[in-house]
Design goal:
This protein is of the alpha+beta class and 146 residues long. It is 30% helix and 17% strand. It contains three helices and five strands; from the N terminus they run H-E-E-E-H-E-E-H. It has a five-stranded antiparallel sheet. Bound molecules: adenosine monophosphate.
C-alpha cells in the first residue's frame, strides 16, 4: 500500500476498536485506545491508536492527533513509572515504504533497557499472560499519573 489510497476498515486495529478482534487493552478513552503489541520489540511495547479512522499522520485531522499525542506522552510516562527502563522510544511509520504494516495510524512506545537490543519488527509473538501482567502494571501507572 502506498501513501495514495483509501482507509480500509478491515485493518486489524479497526477490528480491535470495534471489538471484532481481541487485544490486551491497557486503557481506553473517548478518543484513543492503548494496547500491548503482541509482537513486542522490547518488554512493555505498547501501541496507541486513535478511534477515528485515518491511515497515517498525513491524513489525520488535528483534533484527534492532538488527543493521540497527549495519550502517547501519558503512556510513555506510565511505561517509565511501571517498568523503569533506561530509555523510551516513541515512533510512528507512514506508508509501507516507511515500514508501516497496519494502515490505521498508531504510535509505538517501546521501553529500552541498557545492554538489550530492540527486537525485530513484528517477529516473535509474546505470551498473553506476560502481556496481561505488563498491561495491568502500565494501566495502574497510567491511573496514578496527574
Ligand atoms: P507498523 O509497522 O508500525 O504498522 O506496526 C504494526 C504493529 O502492530 C507491529 O509492531 C505489530 O507487531 C503489531 N500488531 C500487529 N497485529 C497486532 C495485534 N493483533 N495486536 C497487537 N499488535 C499487533
Amino acid at each position: 500500500m502506498s501513501l495514495e489510497g483509501e482507509y480500509d476498515d478491515q485493518n486489524i486495529f479497526a477490528k480491535i476498536l470495534r471489538r471484532e478482534a481481541s487485544a490486551i487493552i491497557v486503557h481506553e478513552d473517548d478518543d484513543t485506545m492503548t494496547f500491548m503489541d503482541v509482537f513486542p520489540q522490547s518488554r512493555g511495547h505498547v501501541l496507541i491508536v486513535p478511534k477515528s479512522p485515518a491511515r497515517n499522520i498525513l491524513e489525520i485531522e488535528d483534533a484527534p492527533l492532538q488527543a493521540l499525542i497527549v495519550q502517547v506522552k501519558r503512556v510513555a510516562k506510565a511505561v517509565e513509572k511501571a517498568l523503569n527502563p533506561d530509555g523510551v522510544f516513541v515512533g510512528q511509520f507512514n506508508g509501507a515504504e516507511a515500514g508501516q504494516t497496519v494502515h490505521h495510524i498508531h504510535f509505538h512506545v517501546i521501553p529500552r533497557y541498557k545492554g538489550r537490543d530492540m527486537g525485530r519488527h513484528g517477529e516473535d509473538r509474546a505470551d498473553d499472560e506476560a502481556l496481561k501482567k505488563l498491561a495491568d502494571d502500565i494501566g495502574i501507572a497510567l491511573s496514578e499519573l496527574d
